[in-house]
What does this fold into?
Amino acid sequence: MNSLNQANVNHCITRHSIEVADETLSYRSIVIDDVTPTGNQIAIAAGFKPVQNVIILQELEHGGLEDIRPEETVNLNKQINRFIIIESDRTFNFMIDGIRFSWPRQVISEITIRQLGKIDASKAISLERKNEADLLLASGEVVNLDQIGTESFVTRIIKNTWQINVQGTIIEVDTPSIIVRDAIERAGLNPNQGWQIFLKIEGQPKQEKQLADVIDLMTPGIEKLRLTPQEVNNGESSAILQKTFELLDTDYDHLNQMNLPWETVISNGQRWLLIHNYNIPDGYNAKEISLALEIPHTYPQAQIDMFYVLPALNLQTGQPIGCTETTTDINGKGYQRWSRHRGANSTWNPTLDNVRTHLALVEGALIKEVEV
It folds into this structure.
């Protein structure tokens, strides 16, 4: 071939620019002399040797990455000409908002997921999980892709406000954290009233908090900030209220809504809920009592039965009150037992009954004795 013909051949060669990157996703431009190169040709043009095991991933027009086999050809006139080339012998599949991706490494960082999915800073990334809450990925957090099944990531717009339940009142703030004192004040309560303060997080033991503590509202599973009075005043002195065992969440809510001092104590191996300053109907020798309910160790599967009062009650009419002759010692004080039980049509249901429903039985029994 003479020099003129060689020049004509060289003149007909079309050079194509493509972009290639490694696992850092830092792209650089290279030139390839073929409009339909194979995967091997692209890898060699990027500087890899034919003997190296490489994974070639092509960026797709509508998102996602497609694995290009070594012998597979790519039409550079029809595709987005961006390729990720990494030395590896296998890929791991995952999804981002339903779009399939492959990755040549067993682990992948939150930063890489964000880059691959073109996820801006206004969105958070979570790993979907079965039978438990999705895992919110922290910035730079690493995820192992070598798990059973395909890992799936979802994105959500980051909230500009956060909420927390404080003693039944939902407060909303524009920062992802709040000081306990501020949360109590926003709920319309006096933080200096002398509260026991507990933070309830799903699946975790309750956490006692102080007024100066900071609550991270981005913590998954935050349920509520619960307050209970620390002291009960009997008119002469104050006593610290005890909290020696747990009740149901519904019990805490109802007891606190009653706005009465209450405590849980253990006496002679029995568990007692004591509600102080409990108002009773007219017609008795007292206006208010300390009301005691025995809480079985297997509550709510086992029922709350009967109730106990201090001081012992008598009717102003002088008439006797049936089935109240027994006295029970609770922490050294004699409580009058009212032997009142559920009827056949109102048997205890562990899924429905609780302290609140038993207090309805108490109220009904007290009213019945003074009805005209």
